[in-house]
From TrEMBL:
The lineage of its organism: Bacteria, Bacillati, Actinomycetota, Actinomycetes, Kitasatosporales. It comes from Streptomyces griseoloalbus. Involved in formation and maintenance of cell shape. Keywords: Cell shape. This is Cell shape-determining protein MreC. PANTHER family: CELL SHAPE-DETERMINING PROTEIN MREC.
Amino acid sequence: MRDTRESRLLLVLLIAIAFALITVDIRGGEDSPVDGARQAAATVFGPIENGVSSAVDPIGNAVSAVRESGDRHDRLAELERENAALKAELGSDDRGRSRLEQLDKLLKISGRGQYGIKGAQVIAIGAAQGFSWTITIDVGANDGIKRDMTVLNGDGLVGRVTTVGPNTATVLLASDPDFTVGTRMEAGDELGFASGQGDRPLRVELLNSKAEIKKGDRLVTFGSQADKPFVPGVPVGVVSRVDPSGGDLTRTLYVTPFVAFSKLDVVGVVVQAPEKDPRDTVLPKKPEPTPTPTVTVTVTPSAPADGQYQQEQ
C-alpha cells in the first residue's frame, strides 16, 4: 500500500475502531459482545498458533535448558566453593586440635621432668641450612634461645639447637648422622651413645659389652655437663634389635626413636634444666600386655558297659 492521504485516514480509522472494541470488551467482561468473535478467531487461528508454537518450542526449550544449565553450573560452582571452604575450615579445626594435643603432651612431659621450656613451631624442614636432618623453629635469641639447648616434644628427644638468629633457630635432629647423645637404659645404669642414621633406627653403642639388654627396653638421655647440650631424663626410644656380643669393648643396639621426625610441628626448647635428674619418670607408661586366653579341659570318666559290670561282680 502506497503512503497516500487515503491510506493514512484508513489507518487512523482502524486504530480508532480497535480502541473502541477493546473498550467495549473490557466493560462487557464475560458478557462482552465481541466474545463470539474472539472464539471464532480462536477457532480459525488456534491450529496455526499451535503449529507455530510446536515449531518454536524446541528452540525456546533449548534456550531455557541452556539458561538453566548455566544456573545449575553456577550453583554447582557455588556449592563446590562452599564445600572447599568447609573442608578448609574442618582441616583447620583438625590441625588446631592436633596442635592442642601436641601442646598438651609437651606440657605434660615438661611437667614430669620439671623442664622449663619455650614453646615453638616448626616453620621449615630440610637442607636449607646445609644439613640433611634439621628444622627451623620460630623462636630465637629474642626469646632467650641459645646454642646447645635441648629440644623435645610430647614424645621425647627431638634434637639440639645449633644456630640461633634473632627470631628463629636451627635444630639438628637426633636422626642426623652427625648427631650423638649420651643415653642411659631404663631402670639401670648402663650407659651408651646414640647416633642418628637418617630414616633408620638410632645406633647405640653401650659401654658395657656384657650388658643384658633385650628388645623392648627403653632409653633416656644421660645428660651433659652443665646440662648442655642435653638435659637428663628425656625419652629417646625403644630397643628394636640387639647385636650379639662378639667380644668387642662395646655392644651395639638399634633403637626406634619415640619421636616421628617427619611429623614435627609443636616443639619445646628447654631453657631451664631440672634441679635433679628425673630418671625414668618422663618415660611413657608401658603398654599392658594382652592376656593370653587359657582353655581348661576337664576329663569325665565314662560309665562301664553292663557286661563289664557283671563280670566284675
